[in-house]
Amino acid sequence: MDKQVIEFCNKINSLPGLKTYDSCSGHGKKKYYIAFTADKVESIFPLSYAIDPCHSGVVGWKIIVSSDCSNFISFVLTGPINGKGQENIIKII
What we know:
Layout: H1 6-13, E1 18-24, E2 31-38, H2 45-51, H3 53-56, E3 62-67, E4 73-81, H4 86-92
Antiparallel strand pairs: 1-2, 2-4, 3-4
């Protein structure tokens, strides 16, 4: 795990019903991401609230839903290169 994402992953894992399983800081070249699962869609609400630019003051963060064509649905939080603004989001969660 990249050291730049550890605090954010820990914060997401502290939210009831969310569990991270993959992440990457992007190493200054690619988008920052954290992949996670949710017990139920409602579990995502605190995170989606925190990444909204009107709350965090930063743009470029979003949650993407993906499926492996089975009953498994996962989510990916993506952000700007180097995770710009993640400290604002972590404070809100």
